Amino acid sequence: MEIRPIKNEADYQAALKEIEGLMSAEMDSPEGDRLDVLVTLVEAYERKHYPIEFPDPVEAIKFRMEQQGLTVDDLVPAIGRKNRVYEILAGKRPLTLRMIENLHDAFDIPAESLLKHSRNQEHHPA
């Protein structure tokens, strides 16, 4: 069977099923090459139709606070004065690059999550 572009959900499901059957293929074999091409096509289709959405920066910070039992005081070294932390958490002030770096380094919050503009920040420019 020839390899064709994945144009719809039916093509996508068929490619996934074929990939499943080829998972044990040898790397440098015709089956392994077919698997490699199919995986590339599936990844391209998924990027277009199932994009990964990163959370809002404020939600990412609040999630990490909840996960690690952090308080506003714990964020002061990364963000600045306590009132600034409250402004960030309320979406009234955008994160600066330094804050993003500090939050990422101190609390291992993915930088991608912190870089995304939040809906609140779009409506309340600094």
Q: Give the total of beta strands.
A: 0
What's the CATH H-level superfamily name of the largest domain? lambda repressor-like DNA-binding domains
CATH architecture of the largest domain: Orthogonal Bundle
Large-scale geometry: elongated
Biggest pleated sheet: none
CATH topology of the largest domain: the name is 434 Repressor (Amino-terminal Domain)
The tally of helices reads 8
**Helix vs. strand class:** mainly alpha
Portion of residues within helices:
55-70%
Structure characteristics:
126 residues, mainly alpha, 434 Repressor (Amino-terminal Domain), 2 domains, elongated, disordered C terminus
Question: Could you characterize the architecture of this molecule?
Answer:
One of its GO terms (biological process) is regulation of DNA-templated transcription. Residues 61-114 form the HTH cro/C1-type domain. InterPro entries: Antitox_HigA, Cro/C1-type_HTH, Lambda_DNA-bd_dom_sf. GO terms for molecular function: core promoter sequence-specific DNA binding. Helices cover 66% and strands 0% of the residues. The protein is mainly α. The protein folds into two domains: 9-49; 57-123, 434 Repressor (Amino-terminal Domain) (Orthogonal Bundle). Helix 1 runs antiparallel to helix 2 (30-49), helix 4 crosses helix 5 and helix 4 (72-79) packs across helix 6 (97-107). It is elongated, with a radius of gyration of 22 Å.
